[in-house]
Design a protein that fits this description.
Elements: H1 2-26, E1 30-36, E2 48-50, E3 55-58, E4 68-72, E5 75-79, H2 81-84, E6 93-102, E7 109-115, E8 122-127, E9 134-141, E10 150-156, E11 163-174, E12 178-186, E13 189-192, E14 195-200, E15 205-211, E16 215-222, E17 225-227, E18 233-236, E19 244-252, E20 254-262, E21 265-274, E22 280-286, E23 291-299, H3 304-313, E24 327-333, E25 336-341, E26 344-348, E27 358-359, E28 362-363
Parallel strand pairs: 12-19
Antiparallel strand pairs: 1-11, 2-5, 3-4, 4-11, 5-10, 6-9, 6-11, 7-8, 7-10, 12-14, 13-15, 15-18, 16-17, 16-19, 20-21, 21-22, 22-23, 24-25, 25-26, 27-28
């Protein structure tokens, strides 16, 4: 009997190994999107929702480790789509788990199913008989990239002594998707990288602009739409679609000087350089014209900082026709007005001034 027991265990392990080898043959490059072995001792840690008390995490339901999930009568456990999503899945998605059914009789069933809306479910595995521990590797197929993908294990049995045990659950996929992002430029300068760059799904890519002599960055665009803030670099994030294009436009650089005086004596100077409307740097000099520091840099033409410095130069540097801060009242309620000042917002009182509008401690622009 002892030898027979050893042979039985060996055969079961061989069957599991064959199943895994067959699975590996279908998907040579596999990425795990989600996994849970219930060894936390509860459903919450694995981001499951149980329909009722007929589903439980117990030591008697384990295949490996310490715990497994046991389902009896009419119940289910459903995965949280925030953790089981297939946003970046490859061409094929697999649902893997170990399953055992106990005392199944006529009218008893276990079902594994998936959904992308939580309402319409597609069954991918149905068991109606008693089976010992079996390694499952179910092909879901080409699931649309969907952040709402989730799986559910469900039972309908005629007695609480008829139940299913589930352990070692995972959702895997063939190699994660990648997307090409194109870098372009116009005017005198370069962008790096140039042309098509492959970016992993939900990944990011940094682009760096290098103007030619006498030129500066005027503006950046993402898919044709101007983006801010303006600087020498731009990073596209959370890439999840094909066809993105990041482009930088260079314009002729300008250098304008102004002087801060007192009683007719020059104390210090300021120099602004950049493109006509963007990437403006403002530096300071001493009375001898030597560089002493940077007031601010790489700001857009409508920035609060740039408009504030316009009176020193006695020019509307951004071409808006106003020397100094532009103000636009957006909404007035009682004695309080929401006012746009340059690219910032203020809650002005009846006296015409008030605090800046902020979110999480940062000024809203």
């Amino acid at each position: 009997m002892k030898a027979l027991s050893i042979t039985k265990v060996t055969l079961r392990n061989l069957l599991v190994l064959c199943s895994l080898l067959a699975f590996a043959g279908r998907a040579q490059a596999v990425t795990t999107l989600y996994s849970d072995n219930f060894d936390s001792g509860n459903f919450t840690s694995g981001h499951w929702t149980a329909q009722n008390g007929n589903a439980a995490v117990t030591t008697t339901a384990k295949d490996n480790g310490t715990y497994g999930a046991q389902l009896a009568l009419t119940t289910y456990i459903q995965g949280d789509p925030a953790y089981q999503d297939t946003t970046c899945n490859g061409p094929t998605t697999y649902v893997n788990y170990n399953l055992k059914t106990v005392a199944f009789a006529s009218g008893d069933s276990f079902v594994c199913e998936w959904s992308t809306d939580g309402t319409n479910w597609t069954a991918i595995d149905t068991v109606t008989t008693t089976v010992g521990w079996t390694a499952k590797a179910i092909t879901v197929g080409s699931v649309p990239d969907n952040a709402n993908f989730r799986i559910r294990f469900r039972t309908v049995t005629t007695s609480s002594t008829h139940y299913a045990c589930v352990d070692d659950v995972s959702i895997t996929s063939t190699a994660l998707l990648t997307y090409p992002v194109t870098g372009n430029y116009s005017g005198s300068g370069m962008i790096n990288p140039t042309g098509s760059t492959v970016v992993p799904c939900m990944g990011s890519q940094l682009f760096t602009a290098t103007p030619s002599g006498g030129y500066a960055v005027d503006h950046w665009t993402l898919d044709g739409t101007t983006v801010t803030p303006v600087g020498m670099t731009y990073t596209i994030t959370n890439v999840h679609a094909t066809g993105h294009t990041v482009a930088v436009t260079f314009g002729a650089a300008k250098t304008i000087s102004g002087t801060v005086t007192s009683g007719g004596t020059a104390l210090s100077g300021v120099t602004i350089s950049g493109s006509p409307n963007n990437n403006n740097d403002v530096n300071t000099t001493n009375s001898s014209g030597n560089y002493t520091g940077k007031l601010f840099g790489a700001v857009s033409g409508n920035s609060y900082a740039l408009e504030s410095i316009e009176p020193v130069f006695q020019q509307h540097l951004n071409g808006d026709g106003t020397i100094g801060l532009t103000k636009t009242v957006i909404q007035t309620d009682g004695s309080t007005s929401l006012t746009e000042v340059a690219n910032q917002y203020y809650l002005d009182g009846s006296g015409g001034s008030g605090p800046a509008l902020k979110y999480a401690g940062a000024t809203v622009t």
